[in-house]
Design brief:
By secondary structure, the chain is an alpha+beta fold. The protein is built from 15 helices and 13 strands.
Length: 410
């Protein structure tokens, strides 16, 4: 179990925890380190070290706090997660998609898209500080319902109560609430908590109502505004009972407006898993245009990608070749295409337009004769693309450079 867990931790990569031991350093004494994890887990003497807290900036300017366990602790958590997961999979709801085997965000988005076509209204839910507010007592009650092994419950309790070390070095001890967002076993425990706090409760109390949940991101589909208001009121009470709270500014009822759905309402769009659902032009098979309700990459997601490109400062890599830049950035670009290019990939056009603007800056910085001559720089980039159309991952997908404007091939 420990060996299989280590292989998964290695594949996931990740940063060092509070001990500063990287994956490479851990592998330097692999046998000793894995033996230590196994020996302590099997003897009942394993106590998790504190979790390292890191701050990640959010799109709204706020900070998201993530917890990074040590490599050894990630292996221990993975071993217990792998032991529990098959059992939990037999009880989890089919509308729960997050952090589950053989299920993906794209699956959740595809189902959401279909349900938006079938139902006129959506409750766009946001649970305020979910991972920080999971009630330990209620979570352990849910665990006790499905797990008899005392050693599993003992270790889960220890992980729940393990302190967090902030950036100043101060240890923060939990007081019966919260699990670090970033821990290996945390998503499984979060799914178990919400299975009873939300999935099962909604299914039993509002039969026939459809929803999609990806961890704590949830959308609920309703037939009418009145039904949506009633269900939302019930959800708010349920969350309060479970020690949680819906974010008042981020939770809303949305009207899925299209050519058949008339009327003016305050909210006609919502974001889910990096995509925006809203009224969009659509086309029938015979070419007839109409207003549909569909999804595409969100503006927030686009801004994050643009910010990443700016931070890379690749327009200053004048000692590198364009082939070298492609080799450096292609894996990231391909990842964006794989995820955001799944639905309406043309929405990524402005991201790649800005990418090409930065690439033109690189051309001008590298070749003195082209400084201040933006049209000629674009012309050079255009010729490179024609000569090497598969150089960049997005070029393969048909995102073209043309003069001062970037378009996408139909």
């Amino acid at each position: 179990m420990v060996w299989e867990a280590y292989k998964k931790v290695k594949a996931n990569k990740g940063a060092a925890g509070i001990d500063g031991v990287s994956l490479k350093m851990f592998e330097g004494r692999l046998s000793d380190n894995l033996y230590k994890v196994w020996n302590r887990l099997s003897s009942g003497s394993y106590f998790p070290p504190p979790v390292k807290e890191v701050e990640i900036p959010k799109a709204d300017g706020k900070i998201r706090k993530l917890g990074i366990p040590t490599i050894g602790d990630r292996v221990a958590q993975m071993a217990v997660k792998d032991y529990l997961e098959p059992r939990m999979e037999t009880i989890f709801h089919y509308s729960s998609y997050g952090y589950r085997p053989n299920r993906s965000a794209h699956d959740a988005l595809t189902k959401t898209r279909r349900n938006c076509w079938l139902f006129n209204w959506v409750i766009d839910m946001d649970i305020k500080g979910f991972f920080d507010n999971i009630d330990h007592e209620k979570l352990l009650l849910a665990l006790d319902k499905h797990v008899e092994e005392k050693w599993v419950k003992m270790y889960v309790k220890r992980w729940l109560t393990a302190p967090v070390q902030d950036k100043t070095g101060k240890l923060i001890f939990k007081e019966g609430r919260g699990t670090p967002q970033g821990g290996v076993i945390s998503p499984l425990l979060a799914n178990l908590f919400l299975h009873y706090a939300f999935d099962q409760w909604l299914t039993l109390n509002f039969r026939g109502v459809k929803f999609e949940r990806y961890a704590d991101d949830i959308v609920v589909h309703c037939k009418s505004n009145k039904q949506a208001e009633m269900i939302l009121e019930g959800i708010e009470k349920r969350m309060q009972y479970c020690g949680l709270e819906l974010h008042p500014d981020k939770t809303k009822i949305v009207y899925c407006k299209d050519h058949k759905r008339k009327g003016d309402f305050k909210h006609v769009k919502f974001d889910f898993l990096g995509f925006t659902f809203k009224p969009r032009p659509a086309k029938t098979k015979d070419g007839f245009m109409f207003l549909g309700y569909d999804l595409a990459m969100s503006v927030k997601a686009g801004k994050r990608i643009v910010s990443t490109l700016r931070q890379s400062q690749f327009h200053r890599w004048t000692s590198n070749t364009i082939e070298g830049i492609a080799a450096e950035l292609n894996s990231q670009i391909q990842g964006w295409l794989n995820y955001y290019g799944k639905f309406r990939p043309s929405a990524m056009s402005y991201v790649f337009r800005l990418f090409h603007e930065r690439l033109v800056k690189w051309v001008q910085n590298k070749y003195k004769s082209l400084r201040g001559k933006i049209r000629k720089a674009y012309g050079m980039l255009n010729r490179i693309q024609k000569a090497k159309p598969e150089l960049f991952a997005h070029w393969k997908r048909g995102f073209l450079v043309s003069g001062l404007q970037m378009t996408r091939a139909v």
